[in-house]
Structures are given as structure tokens and as C-alpha cells.
UniProtKB/TrEMBL annotation:
UniProt-recorded name of the protein: Alkene reductase
Family affiliation: Belongs to the NADH:flavin oxidoreductase/NADH oxidase family.
Superkingdom of the organism of origin: Bacteria
Cofactor entry: FMN
GO cellular component terms, semicolon-separated: cytosol
Gene3D superfamilies associated with the record: Aldolase class I
InterPro entries registered for this protein in UniProt: Aldolase_TIM, OxRdtase_FMN_N, Oye-like
Stored PANTHER family: NADH OXIDOREDUCTASE-RELATED, NADPH DEHYDROGENASE 2-RELATED
Pfam families: Oxidored_FMN
One example GO MF annotation: oxidoreductase activity, acting on the CH-CH group of donors, NAD or NADP as acceptor
Lineage: Bacteria, Pseudomonadati, Pseudomonadota, Gammaproteobacteria, Oceanospirillales
Species annotation: Kushneria phosphatilytica
Length: 377
């Protein structure tokens, strides 16, 4: 008997089921302001046990891509309030993924053409900014500027403010984006982080920024409303492997055990063309981390059920399948066929490939109507 479709208590927040929607950047927010179409997109997917929003930058400095809705300006907050209302009207639970890209940005998306910032001057990753002709384009990230120690502390404050903003506009919690080669992972990484202040060097120092942000955010909105996303051994955006990578994340797991978070969310980047996260390591992490464990990466219903039933994870997270199946929960529950996703419409563009994927019931209705029309003609 599947437990995937039974309610789940996420640190006191009641989820209708265990099917979680992954954070997914869709790059459809003009001027970085969340709009009605975005609210509709989330509303359509509100039967998920939990929706984690697309990455939402905590500041202009933390932005690396055009058309990503931020969570720092008043218009952005009004926009997000519409989205949270839309999800709650359908009984959904909604966390905001709060994000700073660090070095993965481009001068053309920073204020006054400033350089992106990072733990060091090492360049890496691809940003989405304006090319020399002023046309939106994928571009190699610009060479970053090394953050001064004082500036690192300012970023802690930006995350704290973003978490308060998220709570004020109706999000049920936040997920701190510690994965996929962005700011926190750049600090965790022993090669990219070559600092000699208290944020670099030893494992404890490399983990300090993420832990400080977690603590500050927990103090302000409550630890049961705080999740953290991590990608151990992740190599997205030119993150080099380093000797104590696995141990670094186990250290974080032990630190997070002390803090009663809503969850830790691991992302296996295997589906993104990177080396997959070894299942042995996932099990080791599970044995070390005692709170709710979310896991994303190439899951289908069968694999999700297996991992939940054998206790490897608590909650399976689905990304791409949610783009094309707004009613993924109902489809999986009833073993209805799944609609194929379309990578061409993942990022940018309009309603197509975004809010025009029908639910299974809508699709059946459309086909029935078509049959009637065909019979009459
Ligand atoms: C279009 C797209 C956008 C994504 N944007 C984000 C993001 O904003 N933040 C993040 O942590 N992961 C992001 N991811 C990764 C997903 O959250 C997820 O972990 C990944 O797609 C693996 O799950 P899947 O195999 O079920 O798709 C994105 C993935 C896709 C396909």
C-alpha cells in the first residue's frame, strides 16, 4: 500500500500527501516581478503536498538571471502575495526558495554594471543577462569580486529580511538554496573558497555562512518553517570536487540535527547531466540526518515509493514532471498516463508550456468534445 498519498506531518505543517514540487526557475517574470500568470501556474499545481517556489533572489546582487521574480522590493512582494493566496485557496502549502547566486551572475544584471560577488575571484557558471548587442542571452558569468568579511554579514541580513518578507506575504516557510553551485555552495567548496577569514579554510569556517543564515532565519520565522537545499558532490556551474566534500555535508547534517528544521532537501544532479549522487552516500546522509529528508532527481512513482518504503527518504520531490502535469498527484495516485515535459519551454517565453498543460480530467473532457464535433461533421 503506497504511503505517498497519505497526509504527512512536516514539523507541524500538515501536508495532504508526500508528492513535493521542486523549485523551478521558469524565467517569466518581467522586471523580476511575480505576476498573475505565475500565480495561476502555482495554483494549478496546488494539489502537491508542498510546493517549493522557483528560486527567488534575496537582493539584486543575488540575481544572476533575467526575469526571475525577487523577494526584496514592494512590487515583488505584492506579486508573491497573489501567488500564495492562489495556492492557499486550493488548500496547498507553499515555501519560497530564497536564493543568492554568488559568482554566477553577469555585470549586465547587476546594479550599475557591478561585478558579481563570491568567496573569491574565481569565475564559474553561466548567467542569463544582456549580450553586447543588448539582447538577452546565456553568457559566461563575469569575473566575481571577493566579498569583504563585513559584506558577508550583510548577506546574512539580506536572507533574514527575505525570510521575513516571505512570511509577511503568506508563504508557509522558506527553503534556503544551498545547492547547485550558487553562493552557499561556493563557500562550502574548498577549492572555490580560498579565503583566510572566518568564512574560509577549515570545514567549520566554510560552513559558517550557511549556518549563520539558517540560525538567523530560524530565529525570525521559527525553525519548523525553514528548509535547506543541498547538493553534495554537485558539480553544476563548474564546482570542482574536493577531498572532504562528503564529510562537509555530513558535518552540516549534524549541525542541522541540533536545529529542528522543517527539512533538509538533497538534489541529485544526475538528471542535469552531472554525475549522479551515489545511493550509498544518500543512505549515509540519511543515517546522519535525523529530521525530514526530501530528495529530488530523476524520480518516478516506483523509485519514490521504494525510497520512502525502505526509509531512505521521507518525501520525494519531482521537478520536470510537474511542469507538464499540474495534477501530478492525481495522475500518480490513479496511475493515469503522464504528459511529457517540453525542455524548450522550461525557461522564458509566455503561457505556452507554462500554464497551458491541462489536467488529466480537462484533457479527457477536451477529447470527448472533439469526438462529438467529429461525429457531427
Ligand atoms: C526548468 C528547471 C528549473 C530549475 N530551477 C531550479 C531552481 O530555481 N532552484 C533549484 O534549487 N533547482 C532548480 N532546478 C532543479 C529542480 O529543482 C530538480 O531538482 C531537478 O529538476 C531534478 O528533479 P527532476 O528529475 O524530477 O526534474 C530546476 C530544474 C528545471 C528542470
Amino acid at each position: 500500500m503506497s504511503t505517498l498519498f497519505e497526509p504527512y506531518d512536516l514539523a507541524g505543517i500538515q501536508l495532504d500527501n508526500r508528492i513535493i514540487m521542486a523549485p523551478m526557475t521558469r524565467s517569466r517574470a518581467p522586471n523580476d516581478i511575480p505576476n498573475e500568470m505565475g500565480a495561476l501556474y502555482y495554483r494549478q499545481r496546488a494539489s502537491a503536498g508542498l510546493i517549493i517556489s522557483e528560486g527567488t533572489p534575496v537582493s539584486r546582487q543575488g540575481t544572476g538571471y533575467l526575469y526571475n521574480p525577487g523577494i526584496y522590493g514592494p512590487d515583488q512582494l505584492d506579486g508573491w502575495a497573489k501567488a500564495t493566496r492562489a495556492v492557499h485557496e486550493r488548500g496547498g502549502v507553499f515555501f519560497a526558495q530564497i536564493w543568492h547566486v554568488g559568482r554566477v551572475s553577469h555585470t549586465s544584471v547587476q546594479i550599475a554594471g557591478a561585478a558579481p560577488v563570491g568567496p573569491s575571484e574565481q569565475q564559474g557558471g553561466m548567467a542569463f543577462g544582456y549580450n553586447e548587442q543588448g539582447i538577452p542571452d546565456m553568457l559566461p558569468a563575469s569575473t566575481p569580486r571577493r566579498l569583504a568579511t563585513r559584506e558577508v554579514r550583510e548577506i546574512v541580513r539580506d536572507f533574514a529580511q527575505a525570510a521575513v518578507n516571505a512570511r509577511n506575504v503568506g508563504f508557509d516557510g522558506v527553503e534556503i538554496h544551498g545547492a547547485n553551485g550558487y553562493l552557499f555552495e561556493q563557500f562550502l567548496n574548498a577549492v572555490v573558497n580560498d579565503r583566510d577569514d572566518e568564512y574560509g579554510g577549515s570545514r567549520e569556517n566554510r560552513c559558517r555562512l550557511l549556518i549563520e543564515v539558517v540560525d538567523e532565519v530560524c530565529a525570525l520565522i521559527g525553525s519548523h518553517r525553514v528548509g535547506v537545499r543541498l547538493s553534495p558532490h554537485g558539480q553544476l556551474f563548474d564546482m570542482p570536487e574536493y577531498d572532504d566534500n562528503g564529510e562537509t555535508y555530513l558535518y552540516l547534517a549534524r549541525e542541522f540535527n541540533k536545529r529542528n528544521l522543517a527539512y533538509v532537501h538533497l538534489h541529485d544532479q544526475g538528471g542535469q547531466g552531472m554525475p549522479p549522487l551515489p545511493r550509498d552516500y544518500l543512505k549515509q546522509f540519511r543515517d546522519t540526518y535525523h529530521g525530514n529528508l526530501l530528495f529530488a532527481g530523476n524520480l518516478d512513482k516506483t523509485e519514490a515509493e521504494k525510497l520512502v518504503n525502505d526509509g531512505t527518504i521521507d518525501l520525494p520531490v519531482f521537478g520536470r514532471l510537474f511542469t507538464s502535469n499540474p495534477d501530478l498527484v492525481e495522475r500518480m495516485k490513479n496511475d493515469w498516463p503522464l504528459a511529457e515535459y517540453d525542455p524548450n519551454t522550461f525557461y522564458g517565453g509566455d503561457a505556452r508550456g507554462y500554464v497551458d498543460f491541462p489536467s488529466y480530467a480537462e484533457e479527457q473532457e477536451r477529447q470527448a468534445r472533439q469526438r462529438l464535433i467529429d461525429e457531427k461533421s
